[in-house]
Amino acid sequence: MTNDSMTNFASDFTRDGAVCVRGLVAPDLLQRVTEAVEANRADPSDLAQVASQSDDPGRFLEDFCNWQRFPAYLELANATAATAQALMGSKTVRLYHDHLLVKEAGTRQPTPWHQDQPYYDVDGRDVISMWLPVDPVPRASTLEFVAGTHLGPWLMPRTFMQREAKWFEEGSLQDVPDVQADRDAFPILGWELQPGDAVFFHALTLHASQGAAGLRRVVSIRFLGDDATRIERRWRCSPPIPADATFPDVLTNQTR
To answer: Topology of 3-240+247-255 in CATH?
Structure first.
């Protein structure tokens, strides 16, 4: 990637809160990540959850914090950290956690519009995600974003299926707007993707996705930059990360 193209990506990210970087992950690493995804699906962690209804013809599986079990996830973080650094304008890049998202063929369950950071135990502006599919993703099943929402405010986090306010007290934050009811009123971004393409987005960028006609396997890496600090919450965050956890600096391969 040239310096000019990275400058353009950084400018777009600053304006919109989301960018797509084509062909960022090399085929050999992509193959190792795909193998790790299948191993993760066969052996989910205690944090794994099914985020779809029992009558859904497909299934939406999520799992978290598996980089110590599957080294390819850490390789992926290392390989994409420099792009995350340039987009954040940060000197440091730490791996916060990995997130597996698998929608099996025929899954109807949408991922509702939400911001990520209100679910976390992290404060600061330098919080970014990388979203990598290992399968082709048509436009109808891709991750979508409302451009500019990374500038704030924080919006009420709710459970995805029951829509309960289990984190912040009801009424303490503004509710997420009903984007689906009036899509033309919002500047929505989204890209048809091929394996190896990577989407980066700010942790406050409002985003969502629909169901999946075909298998859609994704690994997302959450990064922390210079001003990101952990804060104590009164509730169980998503994901729940131990207070004494350490986060590898994926630019220098040091743990801190």
So the answer is: Jelly Rolls (2.60.120)
In contact, 127 and 106? CB cutoff 8 Å: no
> CA-CA distance, 18 to 144, in Å (whole number)?
9
Task: Confirm if 99 and 219 have CB atoms less than 8 A apart.
Answer: yes
Q: Counting Cβ atoms within 10 Å, is residue 109 exposed (0-12), middle (13-18) or buried (19+)?
A: buried
For residues 113-132, average pLDDT: 96
- The DSSP secondary-structure symbol of 180 reads G
**Average of per-residue pLDDT values in the chain:** 95
Burial class, 255, CB count within 10 angstroms (exposed 0-12 / middle 13-18 / buried 19+): exposed
pTM over 0.85: yes
Those residues with Cβ within 8 angstroms of residue 140's Cβ, 6 or more apart along the chain or in another chain: 210, 213
- 124 vs 223: CA distance, rounded Å: 12
212-241 pLDDT, tens digit each: 999 999 999 999 999 999 998 888 898 999
Question: Which stretches of 89-241 are DSSP H helices?
Answer: none
CA-wise closest residue to 216 among 153, 139, 118: 139
Is residue 124 within 8 A of residue 117, CB to CB? The reply is: no
